[in-house]
Amino acid sequence: MSTSTPVAQRLRNAAPVDSENLSLLLVLPGLFFFSAFMFYPMVYLVYLSFTNARPSNLFAGEEVWVGLANYTQVLSDPQFWNSIWTTWLFVGTSVVLKLALGITIALVVTSDWVRGKRFMRSLIIVPMGLPAIFTITVWRGIFSPAEFGLANQLLGTFGVESVAWFQERWLAFVSYNITEMWLAYPFIVIITVSALQDVPEALHDAAKVDGAGFLARFRHVTLPSIKRPVLFATILTAAASFQQFLIPYVFNDGGPARKNELVIVYGYREAFEFNQYGLGATIMLVAVVFIGVFMWLNVKKGRLAEGVAGDE
C-alpha cells in the first residue's frame, strides 16, 4: 500500500528544471542589483551631463537639455585641467612611494635574517582593517599646523620651525602622498610577499655562485620574477589613487585656493557645493573615461589579460 501523499506524488512526477533556465534564475538577482546600483546610476549620470540640472529644477522635473554645452564648459575650464594635472601628478608620485615602501617591507619580512616574520606580517595588514576615514583623520592630526602636530614636533627636533602644512600647496600635496602611501602599502606588501615566495631559491643560489651581490640578485633575479604580480598591483593601486577623494577633502578641501583639487573632489564640489549637477556629472564621466583608458592601456601593454603569472 502506497503511503505517498498527493503532494509528494506530484513532486516526483514534476519535470526537472532545465539547466539553462536554472542558470538564468540564479543570475537574475545579480543582474537586478547590478542594474539598480551600477547600470541605472551610470545611465542617469550620462543623462544629467546633457542637462542644466540644479536642485531648483531637477527635483521639479524641469531640467533643460543643453547638449554638449557642459562638456564644452568643462573642457575649457582651467580649473578642470588643473585638477587633471594635479591628479596625474598625485597618481605618479604616490604610486612610486607605495611601491618603494611596499617592496622594501616585503623584502624585509621574507628575509632569512629576520625573526618573527609571521608576527610582522600580521602587523603590516592592520591599516587595511581600519576605516579609511579614521586613518585619514588621524593623519590630518599628525600634519596639524599647530605646534603639537606630530610632523611639526618632528621638524622641531631638527631646529625647523612649525609649518602650515595645509596652507601651502606643495606641503599639502606631500601630506596627501604620505597618507596615501600609508593607506595602500599593505596591499603592495601582500602581493609582493606572495610573489617573492614563488621565486625559485635555485636562481638565487646560482647567482651567488656567480658572485652576484644582493643588489645584483635583486635586479636580475628578484625583479624579473615578481614583475607581473607587482605590475598588476601597481595598476590597481594607481586606479585607486586616481579616484582618491577622502584625503584632499578631509585635509583641506583640495586647497589652498582649490590648487590641490583632485578631479573627483572637483566634480563633487561643482555638484554639491555649487549646485551644478549637470557639470558635476560631466566631470565625473570625463574622469571615468580617463580611468578607463588608463586601465585599458596598462592591461594591454602589460599583457595582464594573459594572467598575472603568465609567460612573457
UniProtKB/TrEMBL annotation:
In terms of InterPro entries, this protein maps to:
ABC_transporter_permease, MetI-like, MetI-like_sf
Task: Give the primary localization class.
Answer: membrane
UniProt subcellular location: Cell membrane
Per the record, membrane topology reads: Multi-pass membrane protein
- Its domain of life reads Archaea
* The protein's name in its UniProt record: Carbohydrate ABC transporter permease
Cite the CDD domains for this sequence: TM_PBP2
Q: Per the database record, which ranges form the ABC transmembrane type-1 domain?
A: 84-298
Q: Which organism is it from?
A: Salinirubrum litoreum
Cellular compartments per GO CC: plasma membrane
Protein keywords: Cell membrane, Membrane, Transmembrane, Transmembrane helix, Transport
Which residue ranges does UniProt annotate as crossing the membrane? 21-47, 85-110, 122-142, 170-196, 230-251, 277-297
Report the sequence similarity comment from the record.
Belongs to the binding-protein-dependent transport system permease family.
